Amino acid sequence: MPYSPLVSVNSQWRLFLNRRIHVPVRDEDLVLDVGSGDKPSWRADVLLDRYAGAEHSAQRSGRSSARVTRPLFDADAAHMPFADGAFDYAICSNLLEHVTDPLGVANELTRVARAGFIEVPEAASAKIVDFPSHLWWCRFDETDPDAPTLVMTAKTTPYFDAEIDAYIERAGVRQALDDVLYRRMEHRAILYHWSGAVRLRTEGQLDPDFAAAAMMAPGHKRTWEAIAVRWVTSVLTARTRMRRRWVRVRYNQVVKPEFRRADDPILERRIYRVGDPS
Q1: How many CB atoms lie within 10 A of CB 273?
Q2: Beta-sheet strand order (sheet of 200-203)
Q3: For residue 230, what pLDDT is reported?
Q4: pLDDT tens digits for 126-156?
Q5: Burial level of 146, CB count in 10 A (0-12/13-18/19+)?
Q6: Which residues form the Methyltransferase type domain (predicted)?
Q7: Which of 52, 90, 180, 210 could crosslink 113 through cysteines, CB 3.0-4.6 Å?
Q8: Are 49 and 38 in contact (CB under 8 A)?
């Protein structure tokens, strides 16, 4: 089908609603955002991010530091401090391609939540233009329609083909290619809605030196887009957020039994580190 600006706008709008607005939960459900970064989900009650500071800005595409708009737990997504089944729904958007142990994160998502949503970049698009902070090529294996599986293959270099990457850099067309790919974002992202368990397998072995370099690599900044998305999201979700404005979550309600506190405080909009008595 030839490219049509009108078709593209309509498809992008539907994709935006599916990715950012439509969260299939009830008002009373408790929602966790794992790897919330600078764009936490509007519906999340609790956030988790291991790298909240500005020194890890390469892992984000908007603000340099994570947005602490709700209670945020500073913890490893592969070793969450939360109790089994503490959440009804878990959102994990554009995190798994950054972590060294995506299978561990998938297992933790299954443990702490009953259902959820995962988004990762699709491999074919990423192999044209990817970001040096990404560690995995991601694809969705639907060979068995009853058990679709997210497959993550370890990257060995920041690019798929050295000669093509050198040409893109030499010709100065990286940003232009990125913009073209963003016009058809529905083909650039894998949206995985899961219930009961996350089906994920990894292929290959990550080189620790490559992973360390990726952590410090420059990110891709689309700050103006992040601001626009935040504004539109605020408008579209205002009614639900108003209904839920009095929701309060207690500390002991979400953490593992061994981390519970005698005072059992109501969670506030700040960073929590489990074991910190403050």
Answers
A1: 10
A2: 136-141, 149-154, 200-203
A3: 86
A4: 999 998 899 999 999 999 988 899 999 999 9
A5: exposed
A6: 32-116
A7: 90
A8: no
Q: Which of 95, 99, 100, 217 is nearest to 159 (CA)?
A: 217
List, for residues 54-103, the tens digit of each pLDDT value: 555 555 555 556 889 999 999 999 999 999 999 999 999 999 999 999 99
pLDDT at 56: 53
d(CA 199, CA 151): 9
Any idea which residue has 């539109």 for tokens?
232
* 39 part of a folded domain: yes
Q: Give domain status of residue 126, yes or no.
A: yes
Instruction: Report the CATH number at residue 169.
Output: 3.40.50
Range of the domain at 114: 5-272
d(CA 236, CA 47): 21
Rounded CA separation 253/96 (Å):
26
Model pTM score: 0.90
- CA dist., res. 271 & res. 236, Å (int): 27
For residues 41 and 23, is the Cβ–Cβ distance under 8 A?
A: yes
- Residue 60 in contact with residue 219, Cβ under 8 Å? yes
- What residues in the chain have per-residue pLDDT under 70? 1-8, 53-65, 219-224, 276-278
Residue 74 three-state SS: coil
From residue 8, how far is each of 27, 90, 128 by CA, in Å? 32, 29, 20
- Residue 130 in domain: yes
DSSP per-residue codes, 6-21: HHHHHHHHHHHIIIII
